[in-house]
DNA sequence: TGACAATTAAAACAAGTGTTTTAAACGTAT
DNA sequence: ATACGTTTAAAACACTTGTTTTAATTGTCA
């Protein structure tokens, strides 16, 4: 009604509104597909505001991406550090490491359940995008985190070669990202055995699956030829 | 040189050239990113030829997608059928089922090794695209195949609930697609432990990992809370 | 050779892209 | 109230997108 004046108590500032709208649109439709007009229309601001606050569309993408990914990775590292501190010098249990690696991302979905289940799809999409269009800053953020987890896993599973640890951690990340971004595919495939609101169960299911995969014998056995 | 006339013995027809160029570009850069001009320039044909032969860009996408995905899924189903026929009525080994599910896709990469390792990225990307832009025809193609494999796995692992089988198969698909599309990420992450030409080892690594995951105990145990 | 269909080529189409420019409105401190 | 820097708004920017139109070319059969 009183649109002539802006109340700065309730009405979020333009910058924040752009970030929120962009986050939701990017998550559901991808970076390239969403246009600045879609974002600014949803946010109720002018098109030029994006370039004013973020320099370019790419700048907005990096900001949106970082806002979602950074706290998740920080949380993952902290959980791992805490567990290692508590264990003294001893190797951690595999399931404990995997829990730290997987929980923060999946938990974020559960927390944003009341709103759209949209937030985390972004983080998933962030790693499934093609190499060139992924900001380098974000990629390195994942890279150093991955190294820490692989080191912990190699310590817990000394009979595995380093290459095998990397392989299996890579598989685990793939399973996680796929279950984050493609949950509807699972719901549709399972014909009611898995429902849409079962996303919260993904964590325990995934930890159990990945732990089994890591504790399997060396790869030479099964494959033949 | 003698570009005035076309030799129809060596020079592939326009339609085929478009398909080939589109396949490579789609695989490396994604569907939305690649423009018709890029495709037709690479193919050395006129822009209008795409709409002439395929009706629209979407029509071209479906054709390219089907050409890659269909033979792979046929091969997967045939391997599963052959194995079940050989086993009579008995349940198959888990590793055998997984081998049938994973081999055709990964093998396609090895076969196209002399050319670009590009072909199969398409199939991977095909399932990691967002729901709405994925052709329904292709999705159903995967869906019925998935059902067959989940049924075989449920028979081999009767102590698992149906939901658990779906979950774990979903994880396996995620691991496969991620290793198909993001092999460079693994190479970079592993710092030389896994090299770029190790893509062929993915099959045995993946079968071993997924088999371990499927044979793990029920999910209730590990997750806590 | 002449006629008819299939194919290719060039050009224009309307619509949408990210970005920039220009000017107006705003809040704040002098 | 005046002036100043910040923020918003509208319009135009040059460019690319997928698609269509129109015309020229090709191949084939009568």
Structural write-up:
The structure is a homodimer of 225-residue chains. By secondary structure, chain A is mainly alpha-helical. Chain A folds into two domains: 45 residues, Orthogonal Bundle (Arc Repressor Mutant, subunit A), CATH 1.10.10.60; 148 residues, Tetracycline Repressor, domain 2 (Orthogonal Bundle). Chain A is 69% helix and 0% strand. Chain A contains eleven helices and no strands. In chain A, α1 crosses α4 and α7 packs across α8. The longest helix of chain A is centred in the first third of the chain and has 30 residues. The interface between A and B is large, with 68 and 69 residues. The structure holds a DNA duplex (30 and 30 nucleotides).
Largest sheet of chain A: none
Say what the CATH topology of the largest domain in chain A is.
Tetracycline Repressor, domain 2
- Largest chain-chain contact? A-B, 68 and 69 residues
State the name of the first-level CATH class of the largest domain in chain A: Mainly Alpha
In CATH, the architecture of the largest domain in chain A is Orthogonal Bundle
Ranges of chain A with pLDDT <50 over ≥5 residues?
1-10, 221-225
Cα-to-Cα separation, first versus last residue of chain A: 73 Å
Structural class of chain A: mainly alpha
Roughly how much helix do the residues of chain A carry, as a percent range? 55-70%
| Share in β-strands of chain A | under 5%
Shape field of chain A: globular
What is the N-to-C succession of helices and strands of chain A? HHHHHHHHHHH
Number of domains of chain A: 2
If helices are DSSP runs of H or I spanning 4 or more residues, what is the number of helices of chain A? 11
Radius of gyration of chain A: 20 Å
According to CATH, the homologous superfamily of the largest domain in chain A is: Tetracycline Repressor, domain 2
The chain-level mean pLDDT of chain A equals 84
